[in-house]
Amino acid sequence: MAQEIETFDIKTFEKNKTSNRYTFLNSKGDSVNQEFRDGYYIEKTKKKDSKYSITKVFNESGNIEQKGEYYNSDLHIGKFEWFDEKGEITEIKNYDQHFTFSLEDVLNYLEENNIKEIDKSPTGHKVTITLWRTDSSKLSEEDPIVWTISYGLVPLVLKNNDAIFMGVIKITLDGKTGEEINKQYKRARVDTEWQPFEDLKK
């Protein structure tokens, strides 16, 4: 039995596009962003009330070539799949490989440590969180597997003079155990290199 090929609805896109883009809500209330760029149709579906999204890439004929899931638009999660002209999977890349301390565990760590995004903090600054990790699909079991968290801008108070600065904090977690490996900070418009967290007042 022939593999059913997932296709892009070119006709609907061409009818509704503006500057090669078309955005709409699907039947589940998810936000769907479609565009034509560099010879490919790209469809990004952001799940309703969620930071998870699925990106699909289709060729000029509308046949699928690539599919994968993201967290917060830029963090690859789970398995990414590549397809041939018959719609059959030719390659799978598992971004969760070797990570026994999962994304869900990292999100729990953030909650337990009261690390959260804020549109406007009491200091008037926006606090954002960035997550990234080792691309474990390129590594062996012996290579270091880590999560990296950075967040800011937040107030930083130095031990030696009680001076207060706005800055960013970076935390490195073991990708297998979740253990805190390193914690550093960088003052906005002051530090060019990451500084040891021990310099700060708790």
From TrEMBL:
Superkingdom of this protein's organism = Bacteria
Protein name as it appears in the record: MORN repeat variant
Q: Which organism is it from?
A: Aquimarina muelleri
